[in-house]
Specification:
five-stranded antiparallel beta sheet; mainly beta; single chain; 16-stranded mixed beta sheet; flat
């Protein structure tokens, strides 16, 4: 495939041309439309989800900390003069508070897992920093803490980062546990998961999310909130590749053996026509108040359940390059009705764009990757070896060049 490289130039008041060489050429070639799948929908089924640890942190948040000025009545011997004590709260539920003591000098952390304010009777509550050479900013990996969920208490894996600044203590956590299972829909296998955002408040105290991706992608790490992750707000109505399902997550069992059952029930909602003006869409996810739509490699015209969708998550791919709609900017919405054709301006080709701003004697360049509808995208794992580059000319003379840094 011949790559059509895009470049744009802007002139400053000093007569300097800045040329930005494109990284998006692989998205500029034409693509043939594929029809929306029309095969028979899968029957209703129930999937049992198991609470599972994964070998990476997929969601990060700051843990609220209540500090304590005096030692606990029972705690291990502290070997340094710099000790932080208090309570960590791992979620909005008040039962998720855990007493702790961090011996900063040794890098040891002690957590009151059984919540009796005795830090000496928790053999699994003592943790050593992953890097003993950096006790001031330690990281504790794969720490299991008891967290109250809608299905009961669960030993939840996290990565903890601790640091003290002056007399203040701070803690950040990276979540590594969620409910996972396997489902077959329309003859294709999917990994499906349920997770609760520990810092958002929903009807049950947390904001529930749905993980949905092809089974062959199940080992790939993901990061919530980066635009590339196959994680969406949980909806009781799912429209996947032309097939509609009612979706219900129900607690099953009791106590430590409690789990979550995910029920898929075939539905037949009213559909409307949606035109996608851009190209190279690998995955389109539309989120609304009443339905979640997920389409893989949709054609230029698709049929989806009628309704108003407030957010469109887009993943593009062509020639080995991939990009996702930048989640830092406002999402595009669309309303689909039974009559007429709605239009959603997303997709490629992508164009490299840069804006220039003068700050005193400094020229600031801000880079954006812009889609067909003016929306912005991020390259998926572009790597430090291929960041966007720029060259500046004064007349015909090259005066400087460089690479953009992430920030």
């Amino acid at each position: 495939m011949n790559a059509a490289w895009h470049r744009k130039a802007w002139r400053t008041s000093a007569g300097v041309f800045v040329v930005l060489w494109g990284l998006a050429g692989g998205f500029a070639a034409a693509a043939e439309d594929e029809p929306t799948p029309t095969s028979q929908a899968a029957p209703a089924q129930t999937v049992s989800l198991e609470f599972t640890d994964v070998p990476y942190a997929f969601f990060h948040w700051s843990l609220p900390v209540s500090e304590r000025s005096t030692p606990f009545e029972k705690e291990p011997e502290m070997k340094s003069g710099s000790v932080f004590r208090g309570t960590l709260q791992c979620g909005r539920n008040k039962t998720n508070r855990l007493a702790f003591a961090w011996d900063q000098g040794t890098g040891n952390l002690y957590v009151d897992l059984n919540r009796n304010l005795d830090l000496t009777d928790d053999p699994l509550g003592a943790f050593a920093s992953a890097d003993r050479r950096n006790n001031a900013y330690p990281t504790f990996t794969n720490v299991h803490l008891p967290v109250a969920t809608s299905a009961g208490n669960r030993s939840t894996a996290m990565d903890l980062n601790l640091f003290g600044y002056g007399n203040r203590f701070f803690a950040n956590a990276g979540l590594r546990s969620l409910w996972l299972g396997k489902v077959t829909l329309d003859g294709k296998q999917w990994q499906v998961g349920v997770l609760d955002n520990p810092i958002e408040r929903g009807a049950a105290g947390g904001s529930r999310h749905l993980l949905l991706r092809p089974w062959e992608d199940r080992e790939k790490p993901f990061q919530m909130g980066d635009g590339a992750a196959p994680v969406f707000g949980f909806s009781t109505n799912l429209f996947l590749n032309g097939h509609a399902f009612g979706l219900v997550a129900a607690d099953a069992g009791a106590g430590n053996k409690a789990g979550i059952n995910l029920d898929f029930t075939e539905q037949h909602p009213a559909l409307g026509e949606l035109k996608l003006t851009g190209q190279f869409i690998q995955r389109l996810a539309l989120e609304g108040s009443s339905c979640l739509v997920v389409l893989e490699q949709p054609g230029s015209v698709v049929r989806v359940p009628v309704g108003r969708y407030t957010e469109a998550n887009v993943r593009l791919g062509n020639g080995g390059g991939e990009a996702v709609r930048d989640p830092r900017f406002a999402a595009k919405g669309v309303k689909v009705s039974e009559t007429g054709t709605a239009a959603l301006e997303v997709g490629g080709p992508l164009t490299n764009s840069v804006s220039l701003n003068r700050r005193g004697r400094t020229l600031v360049l801000n880079y954006q990757l812009v889609g067909a509808g003016g929306e912005t995208y991020q390259l998926v794992r572009p790597g430090v070896r291929k960041p966007p580059e720029f060259v500046a000319y004064q007349g015909e003379a090259k005066i400087t060049s460089g690479k953009f840094e992430f920030g």
